[in-house]
Amino acid sequence: MLIDFLIVTAVTTTTALIWRALLLDHEKLLNFVKKIPLIGGALTCGFCFTVWLCLIVVLIYTPLVFWNYVDNSVIGIFVAWFTLSAAVLFLRNLIAVLMEGNGVLTHKHRSIDKEEENKK
User: Would 63 disulfide with which of 5, 17, 24, 118, CB 3.0-4.6 Å?
Assistant: First the structure.
């Protein structure tokens, strides 16, 4: 039960991060997506895309099937959607911060190496 939720969270987070990387690395794709009517803005916003992706995932596979305290299926979908969204956004932002921090540290390390080479 919990493992299913964690697996769905990991897969959804990975999908959101891949989408983020594609938009950051390919300007033509970003410009194309921005021009899509109605949903272009949501597809380019990291937060919005992740939340809507979580809704799609919940509609396909409800990760909180073990949580049967709610009799109304609509409320159950909202609870599952918001729960998955919170977990995915937390994990996505954590990984994004770690990736950015890695880039900063790599740049700092390389600039120190260049300074040492220039001293020789």
Answer: 5
